[in-house]
Amino acid sequence: MSLRDRLTDDLKAAMRAGDAARVSTLRMIQAKLKDTDIAARPGPPVDDAAIIGMLRGMAKSRAESVVMYRQGGREELAAKEEAEIAVIEGFLPQQMDEAAMEAAVAAAVAETGAASIKDMGKVMAALRAKHAATLDMAKAGPMVKARLGG
What we know:
Elements: H1 3-17, H2 20-39, H3 48-71, H4 75-89, H5 98-112, H6 120-131, H7 137-147
Helix pairs in contact: 1-2, 2-3, 2-4, 3-4, 5-6, 5-7, 6-7
């Protein structure tokens, strides 16, 4: 089942269950997906990899909002954003843990033959190609840099 189908099925189930918060978040995701599809025209609708990227961006922006709301003393808005993050993350693949990330970085360094910090781009490209869905590239960057002696 594609991610797009899962989103639709979950929306229907949330509507049947009367879960207003989840319905609202899923509708927001579907609206963003429709915008993404429109931006991709005249080509085909976006694939699951692009949807995952879109969802990651949505979760990241909400996490930033949570920090700002807390600084402003708006705990109720922070809680709403955190609930939306929980729904969004339910559609994202499980992220690698530290050990798996270290192993992936080591494999990519060996595979590309990287010897210095100048080769960091090649290593990051190899990681993105193999593990884009499950690897947090923001955490992988410093690991690659440390491994290459930067």
